[in-house]
Write a structure and sequence with these properties.
alpha+beta, 6 helices, 345 residues, eight-stranded mixed beta sheet, 33% helix, two-stranded antiparallel ribbon
């Protein structure tokens, strides 16, 4: 009884077989079929390698939302070289009403030559080249985000030079002939310092053409949460518009000589997340590639054989057209000649 049930089960499973086996005696191979199979296998191998490279790669996902944090303080990281003596330079943080909200007591002033060494010039040239490419190809920013890593910031030299603070005080203490606001911004960022991130003003160099010259940078700061496979940090991106002009009260160009960075914080927050293709999606795409190539090449091969058979069939019919053979009695024979193996021409 068990054997009978087992046989019924096996027969039922055979009837449900969606992949019937064809005996080899019924299978006919051809050179064209082999050629198409070789092309199909080569295409599958190439697309599989390309798909695996896509699977290994990652991409950045950008999400936007309203920034609801109104209590945190903004950290400013700056490394700037000015072509003036340290005792002539001061820095303050002012609000829109020109009221001092923070002093620059945390800055360290170090006397350094403004001119760069050949090696430093080469590094600056490369940095400026990257900045120009970033303005043209925004996808490079994703590469920079991926290359960022979290580590301790580089410690500045412990030397500090005391000097009076405040831009308004220095104007009365220093002669205008001593002004030289030529400067180079080696680094400017907001929020948590993340090595590896290139900011818009990094490597910027401005040479003053006059003693009384004003340089202005209008900055829009966007809070950013960065989540990659290497780090998770809260930092800030920013965009900048530059402007410079010579102060000449006689010509109607009023203002104060100096370097001014005016920044405004955006109300939107950006969340940048590094994502990766799931393994199951890779398998689905791979199955689609293999099945699609086999189906497409099979259809094309069948269509090609169909067209070829039609062409050759017409060619064979054309070679057996009836011919008129004159007979001695004046009649005409329109019958096809009988072709045998022993026929002679």
């Amino acid at each position: 009884m068990r054997r009978l049930n087992r046989k019924k089960t096996l027969n039922l499973m055979k009837e449900l077989d969606a992949f019937p086996k064809v005996p080899e005696s019924y299978v006919e191979t051809s050179a064209s079929g082999g050629t198409v199979s070789l092309i199909a296998f080569t295409t599958i191998a190439f697309l599989t390698i390309m798909e695996f490279m896509v699977y290994r790669d990652t991409w950045m996902k950008y999400e936007y939302e309203v920034d609801k944090d109104f209590t945190s303080k903004l950290r400013i990281n700056i490394d700037i070289t000015v072509a003036m003596r340290c005792q002539y330079v001061g820095a303050d943080v002012l609000d829109l009403a020109e009221t001092m909200v923070a002093s620059a007591d945390g800055l360290i002033y170090e006397p350094v030559p403004f001119e760069l060494t050949p090696q430093q010039k080469e590094l600056q040239r490369m940095l400026q080249l990257i900045q120009s490419r970033l303005q043209e190809e925004h996808s490079l920013q994703d590469v920079i985000f991926k290359s960022a890593f979290k580590s301790a910031s580089t410690a500045l030299p412990p030397r500090a030079i005391p000097h009076p603070r405040g831009h308004a005080h220095l104007a009365a203490l220093v002669s205008h002939e001593s002004y030289n606001f030529s400067h180079r911004i080696d680094h400017l960022s907001f929020g948590e310092l993340i090595p590896g991130i290139i900011n818009p003003l990094d490597g910027t160099e401005k040479i003053a053409s006059d003693h009384n010259q004003m340089f202005q940078y209008f900055i829009t700061v966007v809070p950013t949460k960065l989540h990659t496979y290497k780090i998770s940090a809260e930092t800030h991106q920013f965009s900048v518009t530059e402007r410079e002009r010579v102060i000449n009260h006689a010509a109607g160009s009023h203002g104060v000589s100096g370097i001014f960075m005016k920044y405004d914080i955006s109300s939107l927050m950006v969340t940048v997340t590094e994502e990766h293709m799931p393994f199951w999606q890779f398998l689905v795409r791979l199955c689609g590639i293999i099945g699609g190539i086999f189906s497409t090449t099979g259809i094309l091969h069948g269509f090609g054989r169909f067209v070829a058979e039609i062409i050759f069939c017409r060619f064979r019919l054309g070679s057996y057209k009836s011919t008129s053979v004159p007979l001695p009695d004046g009649h005409t024979n329109n019958h096809l000649p009988l072709i045998t193996d022993n026929s002679t021409h």
